[in-house]
Amino acid sequence: MNQPTPMTAHPQATPDWRQAIPLPLLEAALILTWSSGFVGARFSIDYAPVLLVVFWRCVVVTLILLPFVAKQLRRTSWPALLKNAGIGLLAMAGYLAGVTQGIALGVPAGLAALFADLLPMGMALLAAVVLGQRLAWQVWAGLVIGLIGVVLVTHGALAWGDAPLWAYGLPLLGMLSLAIATLWQKRLPASESLGLLPNLWLQCCVSSIAFAIAEGTQGSLAPIPSTGFVMSVLWTVGLSTMGGYGLYWLCLRRATATRVASVLYLSPPVTMLWAWAMFGEALSWQMVSGMAVSGIGIWMVLRAEARSR
Q: To which protein family does this belong (predicted)?
Protein backbone atom coordinates (compact mmCIF):
# COMPACT_ATOMS: atom_id res chain seq x y z
CA MET A 1 0.00 0.00 0.00
CA ASN A 2 2.95 2.34 0.67
CA GLN A 3 4.70 1.67 -2.66
CA PRO A 4 3.26 4.61 -4.68
CA THR A 5 4.64 7.24 -2.29
CA PRO A 6 8.27 7.35 -3.54
CA MET A 7 7.04 7.31 -7.18
CA THR A 8 4.86 10.41 -6.70
CA ALA A 9 7.66 12.18 -4.87
CA HIS A 10 10.23 11.34 -7.55
CA PRO A 11 9.51 14.26 -9.93
CA GLN A 12 9.94 16.69 -7.04
CA ALA A 13 13.18 15.04 -5.99
CA THR A 14 14.78 15.71 -9.37
CA PRO A 15 13.87 19.30 -10.31
CA ASP A 16 15.01 20.85 -13.56
CA TRP A 17 18.39 22.46 -12.79
CA ARG A 18 17.59 25.30 -15.19
CA GLN A 19 14.74 26.41 -12.91
CA ALA A 20 17.23 26.84 -10.08
CA ILE A 21 19.22 29.47 -11.99
CA PRO A 22 17.97 32.99 -11.19
CA LEU A 23 16.28 34.57 -14.21
CA PRO A 24 18.39 37.79 -14.05
CA LEU A 25 21.54 35.65 -14.31
CA LEU A 26 20.17 33.93 -17.41
CA GLU A 27 19.24 37.31 -18.89
CA ALA A 28 22.74 38.66 -18.26
CA ALA A 29 24.20 35.66 -20.08
CA LEU A 30 21.66 36.19 -22.88
CA ILE A 31 22.80 39.80 -23.39
CA LEU A 32 26.45 38.74 -23.49
CA THR A 33 25.97 35.88 -25.95
CA TRP A 34 23.34 37.59 -28.14
CA SER A 35 25.65 40.57 -28.70
CA SER A 36 28.44 38.18 -29.69
CA GLY A 37 26.54 37.45 -32.91
CA PHE A 38 27.13 40.97 -34.25
CA VAL A 39 30.81 40.72 -33.33
CA GLY A 40 31.04 37.31 -35.01
CA ALA A 41 29.47 38.72 -38.19
CA ARG A 42 32.00 41.54 -38.27
CA PHE A 43 34.91 39.17 -37.59
CA SER A 44 33.84 36.67 -40.25
CA ILE A 45 33.24 39.18 -43.04
CA ASP A 46 37.02 39.37 -43.63
CA TYR A 47 37.26 35.64 -44.28
CA ALA A 48 34.07 34.47 -46.02
CA PRO A 49 30.62 35.50 -47.25
CA VAL A 50 28.36 35.99 -44.24
CA LEU A 51 25.72 33.53 -45.47
CA LEU A 52 28.37 30.85 -45.94
CA VAL A 53 29.41 31.26 -42.30
CA VAL A 54 25.83 31.10 -40.99
CA PHE A 55 25.18 28.05 -43.22
CA TRP A 56 28.08 26.13 -41.68
CA ARG A 57 27.15 27.47 -38.25
CA CYS A 58 23.75 25.79 -38.58
CA VAL A 59 25.22 22.60 -40.06
CA VAL A 60 27.72 22.18 -37.21
CA VAL A 61 25.07 22.73 -34.52
CA THR A 62 22.78 20.24 -36.29
CA LEU A 63 25.50 17.57 -36.30
CA ILE A 64 26.52 18.21 -32.69
CA LEU A 65 23.00 18.05 -31.25
CA LEU A 66 21.62 15.17 -33.33
CA PRO A 67 22.73 12.32 -31.01
CA PHE A 68 21.11 14.08 -28.04
CA VAL A 69 17.74 14.84 -29.65
CA ALA A 70 17.09 11.98 -32.10
CA LYS A 71 15.04 9.92 -29.63
CA GLN A 72 12.68 12.77 -28.69
CA LEU A 73 12.29 13.88 -32.31
CA ARG A 74 11.16 10.37 -33.31
CA ARG A 75 8.42 10.55 -30.67
CA THR A 76 7.16 13.96 -31.80
CA SER A 77 4.17 14.18 -34.12
CA TRP A 78 4.55 15.59 -37.62
CA PRO A 79 2.20 18.55 -37.01
CA ALA A 80 4.28 19.59 -33.98
CA LEU A 81 7.52 19.21 -35.94
CA LEU A 82 6.16 21.32 -38.79
CA LYS A 83 5.01 24.10 -36.47
CA ASN A 84 8.35 24.21 -34.67
CA ALA A 85 10.16 24.13 -38.01
CA GLY A 86 8.13 27.16 -39.11
CA ILE A 87 9.10 28.98 -35.92
CA GLY A 88 12.73 28.07 -36.56
CA LEU A 89 12.68 29.40 -40.12
CA LEU A 90 11.29 32.72 -38.94
CA ALA A 91 13.48 33.02 -35.84
CA MET A 92 16.81 32.04 -37.33
CA ALA A 93 16.78 32.03 -41.14
CA GLY A 94 14.43 35.02 -41.45
CA TYR A 95 16.18 37.12 -38.82
CA LEU A 96 19.78 36.38 -39.80
CA ALA A 97 19.14 36.58 -43.55
CA GLY A 98 17.37 39.91 -43.23
CA VAL A 99 20.13 41.55 -41.20
CA THR A 100 23.13 40.05 -43.01
CA GLN A 101 21.76 40.50 -46.54
CA GLY A 102 20.92 44.11 -45.77
CA ILE A 103 24.54 44.69 -44.76
CA ALA A 104 25.78 42.79 -47.82
CA LEU A 105 23.72 45.08 -50.09
CA GLY A 106 25.25 48.21 -48.57
CA VAL A 107 23.13 49.03 -45.53
CA PRO A 108 25.60 50.33 -42.90
CA ALA A 109 26.15 47.82 -40.10
CA GLY A 110 25.21 50.36 -37.40
CA LEU A 111 21.90 51.14 -39.07
CA ALA A 112 21.14 47.44 -39.64
CA ALA A 113 21.87 46.73 -35.98
CA LEU A 114 19.57 49.58 -34.91
CA PHE A 115 16.73 48.16 -37.02
CA ALA A 116 17.34 44.73 -35.49
CA ASP A 117 17.27 46.29 -32.02
CA LEU A 118 13.71 47.50 -32.64
CA LEU A 119 12.63 43.96 -31.65
CA PRO A 120 10.97 44.95 -28.33
CA MET A 121 8.87 47.66 -30.01
CA GLY A 122 8.04 45.42 -32.96
CA MET A 123 6.95 42.62 -30.67
CA ALA A 124 4.81 44.93 -28.52
CA LEU A 125 3.12 46.43 -31.59
CA LEU A 126 2.41 42.99 -33.06
CA ALA A 127 1.01 41.75 -29.76
CA ALA A 128 -1.24 44.80 -29.48
CA VAL A 129 -2.43 45.03 -33.09
CA VAL A 130 -2.57 41.38 -34.15
CA LEU A 131 -3.21 39.55 -30.88
CA GLY A 132 -5.20 42.28 -29.15
CA GLN A 133 -2.99 42.24 -26.04
CA ARG A 134 -3.11 45.32 -23.83
CA LEU A 135 0.12 46.56 -22.31
CA ALA A 136 0.27 49.05 -19.45
CA TRP A 137 1.40 52.56 -20.33
CA GLN A 138 4.45 52.05 -18.10
CA VAL A 139 5.54 49.18 -20.36
CA TRP A 140 5.19 51.36 -23.47
CA ALA A 141 7.08 54.18 -21.75
CA GLY A 142 9.85 51.78 -20.73
CA LEU A 143 10.14 50.43 -24.28
CA VAL A 144 10.41 53.95 -25.72
CA ILE A 145 13.03 55.01 -23.15
CA GLY A 146 15.00 51.83 -23.80
CA LEU A 147 14.94 52.59 -27.53
CA ILE A 148 16.21 56.12 -26.90
CA GLY A 149 19.12 54.57 -25.03
CA VAL A 150 19.86 52.30 -28.00
CA VAL A 151 19.90 55.30 -30.35
CA LEU A 152 22.32 57.10 -28.02
CA VAL A 153 24.64 54.09 -27.98
CA THR A 154 24.61 53.51 -31.72
CA HIS A 155 24.48 57.18 -32.81
CA GLY A 156 28.18 57.34 -33.67
CA ALA A 157 27.88 54.27 -35.91
CA LEU A 158 24.80 55.45 -37.78
CA ALA A 159 25.18 56.50 -41.39
CA TRP A 160 23.10 56.45 -44.56
CA GLY A 161 24.81 54.13 -47.02
CA ASP A 162 24.52 53.67 -50.78
CA ALA A 163 22.30 50.58 -50.69
CA PRO A 164 19.11 50.45 -52.79
CA LEU A 165 16.19 51.94 -50.91
CA TRP A 166 14.39 48.59 -50.64
CA ALA A 167 17.45 47.00 -48.98
CA TYR A 168 16.87 49.10 -45.87
CA GLY A 169 13.69 47.13 -45.31
CA LEU A 170 15.55 43.81 -45.02
CA PRO A 171 16.82 44.33 -41.43
CA LEU A 172 13.31 45.47 -40.46
CA LEU A 173 11.80 42.36 -42.03
CA GLY A 174 14.39 40.26 -40.18
CA MET A 175 13.40 41.88 -36.90
CA LEU A 176 9.69 41.30 -37.59
CA SER A 177 10.45 37.69 -38.51
CA LEU A 178 11.99 37.06 -35.07
CA ALA A 179 9.14 38.94 -33.35
CA ILE A 180 6.51 36.78 -35.08
CA ALA A 181 8.44 33.60 -34.23
CA THR A 182 8.70 34.64 -30.58
CA LEU A 183 4.98 35.33 -30.21
CA TRP A 184 4.16 32.10 -32.08
CA GLN A 185 6.40 30.14 -29.74
CA LYS A 186 4.75 31.67 -26.66
CA ARG A 187 1.27 30.72 -27.94
CA LEU A 188 2.22 27.18 -28.91
CA PRO A 189 0.40 24.60 -26.76
CA ALA A 190 2.59 22.77 -24.25
CA SER A 191 1.76 19.47 -25.96
CA GLU A 192 3.40 20.74 -29.18
CA SER A 193 6.41 22.43 -27.62
CA LEU A 194 9.74 20.68 -27.96
CA GLY A 195 12.50 20.58 -25.39
CA LEU A 196 15.22 23.20 -25.57
CA LEU A 197 17.79 21.11 -27.47
CA PRO A 198 15.33 19.50 -29.94
CA ASN A 199 13.90 22.94 -30.63
CA LEU A 200 17.37 24.38 -31.29
CA TRP A 201 18.31 21.40 -33.47
CA LEU A 202 15.19 21.73 -35.60
CA GLN A 203 15.71 25.46 -36.04
CA CYS A 204 19.30 24.99 -37.19
CA CYS A 205 18.36 22.06 -39.44
CA VAL A 206 15.66 23.91 -41.40
CA SER A 207 17.70 27.12 -41.43
CA SER A 208 20.72 25.31 -42.87
CA ILE A 209 18.53 24.22 -45.79
CA ALA A 210 17.34 27.80 -46.32
CA PHE A 211 20.88 29.18 -46.16
CA ALA A 212 22.12 26.44 -48.50
CA ILE A 213 19.58 27.53 -51.10
CA ALA A 214 20.37 31.23 -50.62
CA GLU A 215 24.16 30.90 -50.68
CA GLY A 216 24.20 28.04 -53.21
CA THR A 217 22.70 30.31 -55.85
CA GLN A 218 25.59 32.76 -55.38
CA GLY A 219 28.58 30.47 -55.03
CA SER A 220 30.04 27.32 -53.54
CA LEU A 221 28.97 25.90 -50.18
CA ALA A 222 32.39 24.36 -49.56
CA PRO A 223 34.08 25.53 -46.35
CA ILE A 224 37.05 27.84 -46.80
CA PRO A 225 40.30 26.23 -45.56
CA SER A 226 41.48 29.09 -43.35
CA THR A 227 41.89 29.65 -39.63
CA GLY A 228 39.72 32.76 -39.82
CA PHE A 229 36.81 30.86 -41.34
CA VAL A 230 37.05 28.04 -38.79
CA MET A 231 37.22 30.51 -35.90
CA SER A 232 34.21 32.42 -37.29
CA VAL A 233 32.13 29.25 -37.45
CA LEU A 234 33.19 28.05 -33.99
CA TRP A 235 32.52 31.49 -32.47
CA THR A 236 29.00 31.67 -33.87
CA VAL A 237 28.27 28.01 -33.04
CA GLY A 238 29.29 28.24 -29.40
CA LEU A 239 28.39 31.78 -28.38
CA SER A 240 25.81 33.04 -30.87
CA THR A 241 23.76 29.88 -31.48
CA MET A 242 24.13 27.52 -28.52
CA GLY A 243 24.50 30.51 -26.20
CA GLY A 244 22.46 33.32 -27.74
CA TYR A 245 19.52 31.43 -29.25
CA GLY A 246 19.58 28.75 -26.57
CA LEU A 247 19.34 31.31 -23.77
CA TYR A 248 16.74 33.32 -25.70
CA TRP A 249 14.33 30.37 -25.80
CA LEU A 250 15.22 29.36 -22.24
CA CYS A 251 14.40 32.85 -20.91
CA LEU A 252 11.23 32.89 -23.00
CA ARG A 253 10.01 29.79 -21.15
CA ARG A 254 10.32 31.60 -17.83
CA ALA A 255 9.29 35.16 -18.66
CA THR A 256 7.01 37.15 -20.94
CA ALA A 257 8.04 37.92 -24.52
CA THR A 258 8.02 41.65 -23.72
CA ARG A 259 10.45 41.21 -20.83
CA VAL A 260 12.87 39.02 -22.78
CA ALA A 261 12.84 41.34 -25.79
CA SER A 262 13.27 44.48 -23.67
CA VAL A 263 16.34 43.00 -21.99
CA LEU A 264 17.97 42.87 -25.43
CA TYR A 265 18.04 46.68 -25.43
CA LEU A 266 21.34 46.21 -23.58
CA SER A 267 22.77 44.23 -26.49
CA PRO A 268 24.10 47.27 -28.45
CA PRO A 269 26.25 48.69 -25.62
CA VAL A 270 27.58 45.23 -24.81
CA THR A 271 28.36 44.80 -28.52
CA MET A 272 30.37 48.03 -28.32
CA LEU A 273 32.28 46.57 -25.37
CA TRP A 274 33.00 43.44 -27.42
CA ALA A 275 34.25 45.66 -30.28
CA TRP A 276 36.44 47.66 -27.87
CA ALA A 277 37.98 44.51 -26.41
CA MET A 278 38.49 42.67 -29.71
CA PHE A 279 39.00 45.39 -32.33
CA GLY A 280 40.22 48.33 -30.27
CA GLU A 281 37.22 50.51 -31.09
CA ALA A 282 36.87 53.61 -28.96
CA LEU A 283 34.30 53.93 -26.20
CA SER A 284 32.56 57.18 -25.32
CA TRP A 285 30.54 58.68 -22.51
CA GLN A 286 27.60 58.82 -24.91
CA MET A 287 27.64 55.02 -25.10
CA VAL A 288 27.76 54.81 -21.29
CA SER A 289 24.85 57.25 -20.96
CA GLY A 290 22.90 55.30 -23.60
CA MET A 291 23.40 52.10 -21.63
CA ALA A 292 22.13 53.85 -18.49
CA VAL A 293 19.04 55.16 -20.32
CA SER A 294 18.31 51.68 -21.74
CA GLY A 295 18.71 50.27 -18.24
CA ILE A 296 16.08 52.70 -16.92
CA GLY A 297 13.69 51.68 -19.68
CA ILE A 298 14.18 47.98 -18.94
CA TRP A 299 13.66 48.61 -15.22
CA MET A 300 10.35 50.35 -16.01
CA VAL A 301 9.20 47.38 -18.10
CA LEU A 302 10.15 44.85 -15.41
CA ARG A 303 8.52 46.91 -12.66
CA ALA A 304 5.29 47.33 -14.64
CA GLU A 305 5.11 43.60 -15.34
CA ALA A 306 5.75 42.79 -11.67
CA ARG A 307 2.87 45.09 -10.69
CA SER A 308 0.53 43.52 -13.22
CA ARG A 309 1.25 40.08 -11.76
A: Belongs to the EamA transporter family.
166 CB contacts (<8 Å, ≥6 apart)? none
| Whole-number Å distance between alpha carbons of 221 and 53 | 10
Nearest of 167, 24, 148 to residue 99 by alpha carbon: 167
Question: What is d(CA 129, CA 229) in angstroms, rounded to the nearest whole number?
Answer: 43
What is the spatial distance between Cα 285 and Cα 159, in angstroms, rounded to a whole number? 20
**CB count, 10 Å around CB of 287?**
22
As a three-state string, the secondary structure of 149-161 is HHHHHHHHHCCCC
Model pTM greater than 0.85? no
Instruction: Judge whether 135 and 128 are in contact, CB under 8 Å.
Output: yes
Per-residue pLDDT of the chain (309 residues; tens, 9 = 90+): 444 444 344 444 445 656 778 888 999 999 999 888 877 777 777 788 888 989 999 999 999 999 999 999 998 889 999 999 999 999 999 998 888 788 777 777 667 777 887 888 888 888 887 777 788 888 889 889 988 888 887 776 666 667 788 888 898 899 999 999 999 988 888 888 888 899 999 999 999 999 999 888 887 899 999 998 999 899 989 998 999 999 999 999 888 888 888 888 888 888 878 877 877 767 777 778 888 888 898 898 888 877 776
Count of beta carbons in the 10 Å neighbourhood of residue 242: 19
Contact indicator for 188, 139 with CB cutoff of 8 Å: no
Distance of CA 94 to the CA centre of its chain: 11
SS3 22: coil
| Secondary structure (3-state) at 184 | helix
- Per DSSP, the residues of 126-181 read HHHHTS-----HHHHHHHHHHHHHHHHHHGGG----SS-GGGGHHHHHHHHHHHHH
